[in-house]
Specification:
The chain has one helix at about 10-40. The protein is mostly helical.
Length: about 45
């Protein structure tokens, strides 16, 4: 496999979608699970 083939707009788009998806999942994890856990831990 030629690594120069991965340097294109399509590859950048796929990488951006992957990173954005990961950030959204991390935000959902924090808001739905970690924030309530910390709230109940302090009460």
């Amino acid at each position: 496999m030629d690594l120069d083939a991965l340097d294109g707009d399509a590859f950048r788009a796929v990488a951006g979608v992957g990173v954005g998806y990961g950030l959204i999942l991390a935000a959902i994890l924090v808001v739905l699970f970690l924030v309530p856990y910390l709230l109940f831990l302090t009460l």
